Amino acid sequence: MARVNFTVVRVEGHSCPTGKSQSFIWDAKASGLGLRVTANGAKSYIFQGKIHGGTVRVTIGDPKDWTIEKAQKEARRLQTLVDEGTDPREHRAEQRAAYESRKVEARRQTATVGEAWADYLEYLRTAISPKTKKPRSPRYLADHEALASPGGAPLKRGKGKTVRGPLASLMTLKLSSLTAKTVAAWLEGESRQRPTNAAHAYRLLKAFIRWCGGQDEYSGTVAPDAYDSPKVTAVLPQSKAKEGDCLQREQLPAWFDAVRKIQNPVISAYLQALLITGARREEMAALKWADVDFQWRSLHISDKVETETGRVIPLPPYVASLLAALPRRNEWVFSSPAAADGKIAEPRIAHNQALTAAGLPHVTLHGLRRSFGTLSEWCEVPVGVVAQLMGHTASAIAEKHYRRRPLDLLRMWHDKIEVWMLGQAGIQFDAQQAKPALKVITAA
After folding, report:
1. Which of 149, 194, 260, 426 could potentially form a cystine with 165 if both were Cys, beta carbons 3.0 to 4.6 Å apart?
2. What is the pTM of this model?
3. Which residues in the chain land under pLDDT 70?
4. Superfamily (CATH H level) for 249-433
């Protein structure tokens, strides 16, 4: 192939002949240096040489960015590699791999817990849970964010600011600083103020550390015993439900009497519905009128486990009468004109006042859900029925694979639970007069 001395005029003036896809000219001063121009006018310096009987072609760069002298120097360097038996493409790939390796190592040495935690949250948002085979729920993700939050943001409901999450103090540390000594000191300090939250945060931290161990950019950064060292487990608080956070059978008359006297009918109905259905507080608060079927007596609940479909549970007659009497201000069953989103926001104040008026020990809203599960045993309801009503994951093989309870079967047991609770509370209620009732269809 003919060679010419590269000049600025020759480089700028070279073009691709009509009918061809590309054209080359070769430099007479630097072996292997060529200028390629394509049919659309794109130009680039290239190097072409022979190695092990084959042709090697490597792109150097655009003439706009490379002077002729620099391109010649680069061609001579590449020719030296070829003369030594090294493929320039392999050499470039090795350089790129070494660069990426240095970047990864630098990140491993400088990455903070907060930076890795942000990557972990992104993984949780986008990946499918290996346990449930479904995407993580928004509540699960929000829990992770809240536990690592620095606090100080205005509350979405009410006045004041959010508190610092248990994991917040770890976020500014380098990831390599997460040793057993560091975790133990953190856990001991958090356990003094809020042991239950500390235990919960520890479980999330443990999952996070395990995830880091499986990521190329973080693998080996955290000490292997950072979460299971005897130093850590020795100060790990026991997470357990509050003692007495459950209504007893003999406390039902006083509880119902006090709750029914709450002046706000929405809160009164909400609290009674929590106890009689065993639903989670957020599930009941998010109930819409479109989710209530008075004709066939059912409620469509937004479930924490079945996040996509939710669950359908029976609507017992007494609860149906409570809901039917509520004002229909908007789409929410338990509406609140004062709330920003239009639904009930903080029923705990009224509930605590009712407990005090009745002379009862403190019971949380979640304690009402716990009370449903406990009091149902007085009615000898099958455990699987209670679990299905409450939205618990089946814990036995038979429940998971061989029990398909229809709504009418659940309704039979749920009505029995409601009748028993009302009887214990001394409430006179005629289910036959409850409106609206089930529609009965007779065969023609």
Report:
1. 149
2. 0.57
3. 1, 104-108, 156-159, 239-244, 303-309, 393-404, 433-444
4. Intergrase catalytic core (1.10.443.10)
The whole-angstrom distance between residue 65's C-alpha and the CA centroid of its chain comes to 47
Quickly tell me which residue has 């149902």 as its tokens. 376
Tokens of 256: 């119902």
Question: What does the block give as tokens for 320?
Answer: 């149906």
Q: Which distant-in-sequence residues (6+ apart) come within 8 Å of 392 by Cβ?
A: 305
Q: What pLDDT does 437 receive? A: 42
In CATH, what number does 3-106 get? Answer: 3.30.160.390
Look at residue 276 in the predicted model and tell me its pLDDT: 97
User: Which residues, in sequence order, are CB contacts of 416 under 8 Å at separation 6+?
Assistant: 379, 381
Cβ pair 318, 431 in contact under 8 A: yes
Domain ranges of the chain: 3-106, 113-233, 249-433
pLDDT of residue 338: 86
Cα→Cα distances 81→195, 224, 368, 415, Å = 64, 43, 77, 85
Whether 3-106 and 249-433 share one fold: the answer is: no
